[in-house]
Design goal:
Length: 516
């Protein structure tokens, strides 16, 4: 059967969509989704229907589903604002509402006007977690390896950047010698997580690795040796460590993939990956480059929740480091963050972005609430943990702030934002008047990132309070290099303390360091 609507022809036998006689490129999964919506146009199709028919009941995030819907709309010249052909029915599902004429497959379609330009949709990467191999020689230990694998799968599903294959599919390869490239092709994924568990007496060794199935290469590997004092505690600790480590590795791999594409073929996903690679570098030039890439991604897809969330966070991070004016960017950032939450209210990135806006606009209670919501949705989200630590410190809860920063560091010891977490921990120690601890943590932050404004701020105020004039002078000089507009007035008016005493303590540190 073939479906004709507007100047489009959707041919189920040829698996082809044409517009004015020209083929429109579509990913197979997007084609299946569009064909199903058109065929079922007499009714509202629920999310469960789509997951059952298109994803065969695999675990699918809302962002992945929305990505495919948006891709289908784009292929038809539709979008989420007008919903001319594919309409979203709030809390119910989706319905194809265009006028459709059905034809037998052999019927020729009438001549149509010149084709609209074809657009290639952004495609999120898929990931499968295989059952970890039991290396203990004891069949009774199978449960432990399976439990680790299942927990990693569940943790990755909460990150919502990837399509995660359900256990019932990925565990079918257990005990079989199958090449990862074949597994990837059969499951429709780019990345494979595999590992092993070796348990002896009261110790366990767990190895895990992330593979790029398209190249056959290893992107990341780690080994964990633990005492089995508490089996479940060990299982949770290692699961969290693996899940937190995988996300930045996939972002890096996807960024590398995007740089191999011609500039004209970049889609919204590619642009987002490039933007993240600039964001993690934490320099003013990279900050501006990231913003430009994110704006291009949103121009392609105005309802791209993750790009909107990262853009909002980017704006607010620029404010905190003195690279952007709060009054100028806060309205834009808040609009982007709220749009991200509307796109996917269960996306931890969206809530973290909104929390960062509330933080910079002195709504600390709202900021803490949003960061807590982000961490409830994804407990392994180290960046949200770091933001939460920062908000706690400005709310006057320095002990809790230090602990939250330490959790961020433990969660992701190779995180691109590790310097920021050390700087936040250092500021928490400064507020407790533990200046030597603050200096040590600030130096660790600067060791990771030589241009980190926050690290130099903590170093300068802590050195000022200890009377180390040489260190204070050096730190202040580096701070002026990274933030030329730094002044007592900027500090007093731009940073969102809840307590006047904390603000005055910080200002006094800068005065003693020599800032005017």
């Amino acid at each position: 059967m073939r479906f004709v609507f507007e100047n489009n022809v959707l041919d189920g036998d040829l698996r082809e969509l044409t517009c004015g006689g020209a083929a429109v490129p579509l990913q197979p999964q997007v084609f299946d989704l569009l064909l199903y919506l058109v065929a079922q146009r007499a009714r509202v199709v629920s999310k469960d229907d789509l997951i059952s028919q298109i994803w065969s009941d695999r675990i699918v995030s809302d962002s992945a589903l929305n990505s495919r819907i948006n891709a289908a709309r784009k292929a038809l010249g539709d979008d989420g604002a007008t919903q001319r052909l594919i309409k979203t029915i709030p809390r119910k599902g989706f319905r194809f509402v265009g006028d459709v004429r059905e034809e037998a497959a052999g019927t020729l379609a009438p001549a149509e006007p010149a084709p609209a330009p074809a657009r290639i949709a952004a495609e999120r990467p898929g990931i499968a977690v295989l059952a970890f191999e039991n290396m203990s020689g004891d069949p009774a230990q199978e449960y432990f390896g399976d439990g680790i694998s299942e927990d990693i799968l569940t943790a990755l599903s909460k990150q919502r950047w990837f399509m995660v294959i359900a256990r019932n599919s990925s565990f079918t390869y257990k005990g079989r010698a199958v090449h990862i490239r074949q597994i990837a092709e059969e499951l429709g994924v780019r990345y494979i997580v595999e590992g092993s568990v070796r348990k002896a007496d009261n110790r366990v060794r767990i190895t895990a690795q992330l593979n790029d199935a398209t190249t056959g290469g290893h992107l990341w590997a780690e080994r964990y040796d633990r005492e089995l004092v508490d089996v479940f505690a060990v299982q949770d600790e290692i699961t969290n460590a693996i899940a937190a480590a995988i996300e930045p590795q996939i972002h890096a791999a996807e960024n590398f993939r995007s740089h191999r594409k011609p500039p004209a073929s970049l889609d919204a996903w590619d642009l987002l990956m490039r933007a993240l690679s600039h964001t993690w570098r934490v320099t003013r030039q990279d900050h501006e480059a990231a913003r430009a890439l994110l704006e291009r991604a949103i121009a392609i897809d105005p309802n791209y929740g993750q790009a909107l969330a990262v853009l909002a966070a980017n704006h607010m991070f620029g404010v905190h480091l003195g690279w952007a004016e709060l009054a100028k960017v806060a309205p834009v950032a808040e609009a982007a963050a709220l749009a991200a939450v509307r796109c996917d209210h269960e996306d931890a990135w969206a809530h973290a972005a909104l929390g960062s806006v509330c933080f910079s606009t002195r709504r600390l209670a709202d900021a803490l609430s949003e960061f807590e919501q982000a961490l409830a949705l994804n407990p392994n989200f180290s960046l949200a943990q770091g933001y939460y630590a920062l908000a706690l410190s400005y709310a006057g809860r320095s002990g809790e702030s230090f602990e939250a920063a330490q959790r961020a560091i433990r969660l992701s010891p190779r995180d691109p934002s590790l310097a920021i977490y050390h700087g936040i921990a250092g500021y928490a120690r400064f507020t407790e008047q533990r200046y030597h601890d603050a200096i040590a943590l600030a130096r660790e932050a600067i060791r990771h990132r030589g241009d980190l404004t926050g690290g130099y701020r903590v170093l300068a105020v802590s050195a000022g309070m200890t009377g180390d004039s040489l260190l204070a002078e050096t730190a202040l000089g580096e701070l002026r290099r990274t933030q030329p507009n730094i002044s007592l007035h900027w500090i007093a008016t731009q940073l969102p303390w809840a307590n006047d005493a904390d603000r005055e303590h910080y200002l006094e540190g800068f005065r003693r360091a020599g800032l005017r």
